[in-house]
Amino acid sequence: MLGGNIGAAAVAVALLTGTACAIELDIHKEQSIKDAAATAVFNTMSNYTANQTSSNPKQSPRTWWENGIFFSTLMQYWYFTGDASNNAAVSQGMYDQRGKANDYMPQKSPGFVNDDQMTWGLAAMTAAELNYPRESSSMPSWISLAENVFNSQVARWDNTSCDGGMRWAIEPTQSGYTMKNARENGGLFQLSARLARYTDNQTYAHWAEKIWDWSAGTALLDTKSWRVADSVLVEGSCKRSSHEQWTYNYGPYISGAAYMYNMTKGNEHKWRLGLDGLLKTTFDSFFPEKHGGKIMSEVTCEPKMLCGPNQDIFKGILASDLVFTSIVASHTASDILPRLQGSAVGAAKQCSGGSNHTLCGRRWYDTEWDGSADIEEQISAASLFSANLVVFKKDKNPATLSTASNTTQSTAKGASESSGTTTSGGDSSSKPNSGSSIAGGALGVSAGIVAGVVAAVQAMA
Ligand SMILES: *[C@@H]1O[C@H](CO)[C@@H](O)[C@H](O)[C@H]1NC(C)=O
Ligand SMILES: *[C@@H]1O[C@H](CO)[C@@H](O)[C@H](O)[C@H]1NC(C)=O
Ligand SMILES: *[C@@H]1O[C@H](CO)[C@@H](O)[C@H](O)[C@H]1NC(C)=O
Ligand SMILES: *[C@@H]1O[C@H](CO)[C@@H](O)[C@H](O)[C@H]1NC(C)=O
Ligand SMILES: *[C@@H]1O[C@H](CO)[C@@H](O)[C@H](O)[C@H]1NC(C)=O
Ligand SMILES: *[C@@H]1O[C@H](CO)[C@@H](O)[C@H](O)[C@H]1NC(C)=O
Ligand SMILES: *[C@@H]1O[C@H](CO)[C@@H](O)[C@H](O)[C@H]1NC(C)=O
User: Options 1.10.357.140, 1.10.1040.10, 3.30.1520.10, 1.50.10.20; which CATH number does 2-460 get?
Assistant: First the structure.
């Protein structure tokens, strides 16, 4: 049942057309883009078998944090296509993973770090903004889940070094505890900004500003070159950074600045300056001129085909952040949309892998399939294709509390695992499913990236 009929139909059409390039894409035709998105989504769902309320989402993305991206991508797909085939599974998975305190903090978390939780908080935020259908109205609202993630994280704001910031890891024993990173701090900035716009609650706006200013005071966010570093070492006051450039570190700062820009009605120069500066760096860095300047590339690992699995999902994250930026900061659309279109046209040519010639590779600039066909490449392609439907969508503004449908009021009670409570932080009516526990085995997710970055930072230190 998963994946629905549109995917199969699109594949049938693609196969009938008989070319080696199996995702046919006419970027100017809505149905053509929908078909491409449906095929990519079908492929992301084809291995997804989890419908077991007491288990992790299984056998699709390989790591827990990637599952948050996966669900968020599927919500975006529904939003832009209207195809609801996967909604029940996604809603169920989102609730299954919410944790006892409704804040996406697993109870047992060996390798679990701040930005893993953040991925899920941002997915819940996306669900709220897109009016994503809930599994059942007795479940906590999406916005309360997002607020709970915010509250659980700001309680970990670390004043003991670098005058603030979020550490990458949560526990001193974890790899990554000695670093503060862009994905987490940018992610909390983005979540705060989106919560601020959604709820109009100034607490979130203050935090957004505080995290942005803090980032700009460290080597993470360079407000002269508008480069975002991957991470900084706590030792040396967060002035030393890893120079590696990744698309998914730019997305949250761009998106957060766009939401703040919108929320302040375009009147605050700070957000316009940051947004436009970061976009320029993103275009210059990740849309290389040698491929025409309109196709997104993970430049740090793609040229030599050295991308790790995690890294193949990054471009999908940036595509998603860019498309919503183009909505809430409308002046950016004329720069963003041609690049999403160029990337999609490029990616479609790349999607001729596997026995059915529809699996996408990672190098969207190659005119032939590059041989990679993991789940992360399919998720990135699904995000990219569905993002391109934005030009056909009416009423595309992300919801706010006053425009949201089927969303309960903002009810966060400040539930935080650090307060030692295990009570529900969401709707008081909701009873977390006590049978819903998260197996530890598949967590640990970012640990690989963290280790890689430790090496990188040490190499430059
Ligand atoms: C999962 O299985 C349960 C129990 O059979 C069912 O109620 C639920 O609708 C299923 N969910 C999905 C997404 O298929
Ligand atoms: C809103 O709630 C109604 C009734 O529960 C349901 O039929 C409908 O699908 C929901 N819509 C959304 C967008 O969640
Ligand atoms: C960090 O310090 C600020 C004041 O400098 C204070 O308001 C805040 O509560 C502190 N945060 C934590 C988590 O201790
Ligand atoms: C604003 O959000 C914070 C954090 O969730 C919450 O503690 C506070 O009660 C909210 N304020 C209002 C007026 O809702
Ligand atoms: C704010 O976002 C809305 C869409 O939600 C958009 O119509 C409006 O133009 C945006 N404001 C600015 C200043 O870009
Ligand atoms: C294409 O083949 C892959 C395995 O190679 C499979 O996972 C996927 O479901 C197939 N997709 C379609 C659309 O048939
Ligand atoms: C699905 O799983 C099979 C077997 O592990 C694998 O070969 C295939 O690549 C997977 N498909 C996707 C789209 O990840």
Answer: 1.50.10.20
